[in-house]
Every structure is written in C-alpha cells, then in structure tokens.
Design brief:
12 strands; binds adenosine-5'-diphosphate; alpha/beta; globular; binds magnesium ion
Length: about 350
C-alpha cells in the first residue's frame, strides 16, 4: 500500500549526493535485571535526501535524535535499520574500514570548537595537519594553503599563531570550518555549529557558510534546535520529534504553511501577524517550552508521540501512529492525523 512507503523528503531530478533511507538508530544500554540489553531507539524510520550544493536544515528539541542522524552519516553511530547512500554508494558496504575518499568527502563541524580543537596546538598546526592528512604538500605549499584557508573563513595570519583559547567563539568556529574544508569535502554535517554563539555572531557564521556553499558547491546537513536559525540557510527542512520526522519539505513551504502542529508551535511566535491568534499561539509555545518535556525515547507515548503536548490530539492520535504522508497541493510531508491541507498518500 502506498501509505506504507514514505516519499523521500526532496523529489530531486538528479540523484542526490546523500540519501538517508528509513534510518533507525538504536543504542544498547546496560543490561537490566533480566540480563537482556535495553535498547534505546534514538532515530526511527527517518528518510531524506540532500542534493549537491544544497542544505537540509534538521530541527528538533534536545534529545530528538538530530546528532544521532549526523553521527550515523559520519559512521559514528549504528545504522540499525535502513541505509545511508552517499554518492550512489551504500555506506554499509564499507564494513569496518571507511574508505579514505569517504573521510575526505564527508566532514563535520560541531557545536563546541573548544572541545574539538587541540588546545595545545596553534591554529596553523591544526590546519596544517588537516591539509596534509589526505595530501602530500611541501612546507611552502602547506603554509600557502593554511594562509588561504584562513583567508577564506575571514581570519588572517595573526590567528594562525594563536591557540584556540585565545580566540573568540566565532573565530574558533571559523577555524573549525576551515579545518573541515581542508579535505575539500562535498558534504559537511554541521551539528549545531552556531548554538553556542550570540545572535550577531550566529548570523556572521551562517553567512560565511552560505558564501562557502556558493563558492565551493558543498552540501550541508545543518542541525539546529531552532527553526529560526536554519531559516535563511536551508533549501529543505526536516522537523524531528522523538526520533521521527514530524514534517519535512521545501524550506519556503514549511515556513509559509507549516502543517504539523509541532512545527506550527515551533514557529508560533513569528508565524502570524494577527495579534489575537498570535497571542493564542504564543501561549501554546510557552506551554510547550515549560510544561511537558520531550518524552523519553525509552518509553515513547503510544500513538502519535506528540499527542501529550498537542492541542489537536484525539483518540486516534492516542492510539495510532500517523504515517509521514505527502499533503495535497504541497511538496511537504507531515506525520499527523489532522494535518492540513488534506492529506493524500505519498506517491
Ligand atoms: N551513545 C549513546 N548511547 C545511548 N544513548 C544515546 C547515545 N547518544 C544519544 N543517546 C540518546 O539518544 C537520544 C537522542 O540523542 P541525540 O541524537 O544526541 O539527540 P539531539 O542531538 O537531538 O539532542 C537521547 O535520548 C540520548 O540520550
Ligand atoms: Mg545533538
């Protein structure tokens, strides 16, 4: 039946650079009294694609499984079910030995560069190592490339001789970006790269990433817990709730006509000009922020996982898990029994 096979998030003509298909990530926790291992399902049946030179913004609360998806792509978290296809190749075929070409092609920028940059090395040494990991360079070439990569991210020779703690948060993140670019990657997993920065630095770093994408054609999986952060960055949006996609689709569409109540709640404060409805939505947003927490993935609510926090929940929502389906007249998918506009089965 059609509605058992969710469509990919981006119906692209060219084969995508990255295709995540029905990804499930489970972690084995300790053994309980029974001696059987407890399994935590952090990501459940998530599918999306990212085209060359495109950005997917992946949004969700802390604990919703964002990093697990990023780490599964980077081969740092288990792919328990489904598959991850990069440039036409199923990464499961790599087995234990990740090919050097994949390590070059797929890079990462984490939230906290202080913990990912070696504190005892100058920036020049860190970048030099990244540049020569996959390429042979003479000392002269290496120095030239270090200068070039700093310049590209808006830093100078002055920063080359500094240690990470001597730089600002924004400057450190620029170094982390330069390091990721050193292997000339085709995809960068950006795991909350601006979450620790103040708002003006956030937009500077985002603008830099956009500029680099324009110049280099690199693709991003851009993870954030806030829809606003990825707004001007993303071609496509995926909204995660407790390990599942609640909604996905072209960014413009998701922001203009969010269909899942969770997405609507996340966008509530900026969504409507009508002050009356705006007030109602803000109240709902506050409720979400302060009231119920994200349920534990060890004990997900039955039916739709969002139902305990959802203003539209009814008996159906409490008992039946909604499928992620395409909506009529839109390119968006939503997993909601009450999604508007009217739902149709995914093609
Ligand atoms: N290595 C791990 N072992 C066990 N549980 C984990 C591990 N990593 C993450 N989790 C759990 O998986 C869920 C999703 O975590 P994560 O992917 O980090 O979410 P997010 O990045 O959205 O905050 C959380 O409940 C988290 O506690
Ligand atoms: Mg995370």
């Amino acid at each position: 039946m059609n509605d058992r096979t969710p469509a990919p998030a981006t119906p692209a003509a060219a084969p995508p650079l990255l295709s995540v298909e029905h990804l499930t990530v489970r972690y084995q926790l300790g053994r309980g009294l029974t001696g059987r291992p407890t399994l935590l399902t952090a990501v459940r049946d998530v599918s999306f694609t990212i085209g060359a030179g495109r950005t997917l913004g992946l949004v969700g609360e802390s604990g919703s499984g964002k990093s697990s998806i990023g780490r599964a792509i980077l081969r740092l978290a288990p792919v328990s079910e489904g598959r991850i296809v990069f440039d036409g190749q199923d990464t499961a075929a790599f087995g234990r030995r990740t090919p050097p070409s994949f390590n070059r092609d797929v890079q990462v920028v984490f939230q906290d560069p202080l913990s990912s940059l070696n504190p005892r090395q100058t920036i020049a040494v860190t970048l030099g190592q990244a540049l020569t990991r996959h390429r042979r360079l003479t000392a002269v070439e290496r120095n030239r490339e270090i200068a070039g990569s700093l310049d590209r991210v808006g830093l100078s020779g002055y920063h080359a001789q500094r240690y990470p703690h001597e730089l600002s948060g924004g400057q450190r993140q620029r170094v982390a970006i330069a390091r990721a670019l050193a292997t000339r990657p085709r995809l960068i997993v950006c795991d909350e790269p601006v979450s620790a920065l103040d708002v003006s630095t956030q937009s500077q770093v985002i603008n830099l990433l956009k500029e680099l994408q324009r110049d280099l054609g690199v693709s991003y999986l851009f993870i954030a817990h806030d829809l606003e952060v990825v707004r001007h960055m993303s071609d496509e949006i995926g909204v995660l709730y407790l390990g599942r996609l609640a909604e996905s689709g072209p960014a413009e569409q998701v922001y203009r006509t969010p269909t899942h109540p969770y997405t609507q709640t996340l966008l509530a404060s900026t969504l409507l000009a009508d002050p009356e409805r705006q007030r109602a939505r803000s109240a709902r947003r506050r409720e979400l922020a302060t009231d119920a927490e994200l349920p534990s993935p060890l004990a997900p609510p039955p039916g739709c996982a969002f139902h305990p926090r959802c203003p539209r929940a009814d008996d159906l929502c409490r008992t039946e898990q909604p499928e992620l389906l395409q909506l009529t007249g839109t390119a968006s998918l939503a997993a909601c029994h009450h999604a508007e506009p009217v739902r149709v089965a995914a093609p």
